[in-house]
Design brief:
This protein has five helices and five strands. It has 145 residues and is α+β, with helices and mostly antiparallel strands.
Length: 145
């Protein structure tokens, strides 16, 4: 998608990213982040909590938002991306998540455009897992809004 972002303008819908939450991925994230909170990795413990079962790390789910932005904006996102989000509902093993976004604002500056997007991550029940806003600076020679 990165090469076709010349078409970006206010209202443009970013290509959605779909992810299935798997306990194996949660366990791998726990190892990588060293966050072994039992609410994430101990199914027996988690069943006895108000959550009623294990939940994915918020930062794991947020990484899906960043993956969608990287798919669209490539190195521009990696170099200048900013996130401002709220976590609404936990993601659980078995959830099918859809990450989506829409260009909200595009401001021309000296050497780049600043693109602001509304982003949303929702499960298959339509529940919002994450909502918020991203900002990315795109070099002028790569894009026109």
């Amino acid at each position: 998608m990165e090469n076709s972002f010349r078409e970006l303008k206010v209202g443009f819908e970013l290509p959605a990213l779909k992810k299935k939450v798997r306990q194996e991925d949660i366990n791998l994230y726990a190892k990588a982040s060293r966050d072994f909170n039992p609410i994430h990795i101990d199914e027996e413990f988690a069943r006895q909590t108000p959550a009623g079962g294990t939940i994915a790390h918020g930062m794991l789910v947020l990484a899906y938002v960043s993956q969608m932005m990287t798919d669209v904006f490539g190195e521009n996102w990696l170099e200048s991306g900013e996130l401002n989000v709220r976590f609404k509902t936990p993601a659980r093993p078995g959830d099918n998540l859809t990450v989506s976004g829409k260009v909200k604002k595009c401001i021309e500056e000296n050497t780049c455009f600043t693109v602001t997007c509304d982003v949303l991550c929702a499960n298959e029940k339509g529940e919002t897992v994450i909502s918020g806003e991203t900002v990315v600076r795109v070099k002028k020679d790569e894009n026109r809004c």
